Amino acid sequence: MTSGRGINEGDFPKALAIYRRLARETNLKLCASLGIITVNMARSLTEAGVTMYHHNLETSESYFPQICTTHSYQDRINTIKACQAANLEVCCGGIISLGETMGQRFEMAFTLRDLKVQSVPINILNPIKGTVLENQSVLPALEILQTIAIYRFILPEAKLRFAGGRENALRAGFRLFGGNQCYFGR
Fold first, then answer.
1. 8 Å CB contact between 133 and 98
2. In degrees rounded to 5, what are phi and psi of residue 62?
3. Given Cys at both, which of 7, 31, 37, 168 links 52, Cβ 3.0 to 4.6 Å?
4. Radius of gyration of the chain from Cα atoms?
5. What is the DSSP string of 81-97?
6. Within a 13 Å sphere around the CA of 114, how many CA atoms are in the beta-carbon half?
7. How confident is the model over 77-134, as pLDDT tens digits?
8. CATH of residue 69
9. Are residues 11 and 31 in contact, defined by beta-carbon separation less than 8 angstroms?
10. 171 to each of 11, 34, 37, 128, 176, how far by Cα in Å?
């Protein structure tokens, strides 16, 4: 996983070498998360043994400008389509409780459905002091679970994965509301 816009050109060949070695020496299902990439980069990942690419939308297209100013929503969509063109499975979701409306959460779910992603990580904002969203209120557990339940209806075939900020809603029963998996750890 990288931070920022995407992996730099100098590091990409090094990442490919690592993926090739892992594919050769292990039985791991390899997933890359390198930020914005091109179709040629995605094809190189496939050739190196990567089978899945993780690249979140972060939020809905209508709310995205409130959250990200370094690149466009279309850049994220283009990366997902590039990965699909290279026969990579796509793990793509976002963060809820950023200040978006319930309608904007559904907008993101319909975009994910239209993109036909296989895996949807759902993260809940964990406001951190010193960040722009430090004062953002976290959604109540019931609203988080209602969002997950509606995602299940919109994305019936996708694996819904409860990721960051999950402690809040775990207490209320993530799996009962349609989730498939929870990530654990700190």
1. yes
2. -70, -25
3. 31
4. 17
5. HHHHHTT-EEE--EEE-
6. 9
7. 999 999 999 999 999 999 999 999 999 999 999 999 999 999 999 988 988 999 999 9
8. 3.20.20.70
9. no
10. 41, 32, 37, 21, 11
Task: At 62, list the tokens.
Answer: 């209508």
In a domain, 2, yes or no: no
**Rounded CA gap, 42 and 29, in Å?**
16
Containing domain of residue 139, as a range? 12-182
d(CA 79, CA 75): 6
Q: What would you measure as the largest C-alpha separation in the chain, in angstroms?
A: 47
Assigned domain for 153 exists = yes
3-state helix, strand, coil split of the chain in percent (to 5) is: 40, 15, 45
In the chain, the amino acid numbered 130 is: G
What confidence category does residue 139 fall into, taking pLDDT thresholds of 50, 70 and 90? confident
The structure tokens listed for 147 are: 């969002």
Is 76 part of a structural domain of the chain? Answer: yes
Task: Give Cβ neighbours of residue 175 (< 8 Å, ≥ 6 apart).
Answer: 182
Q: How many domains are there within the chain?
A: 1
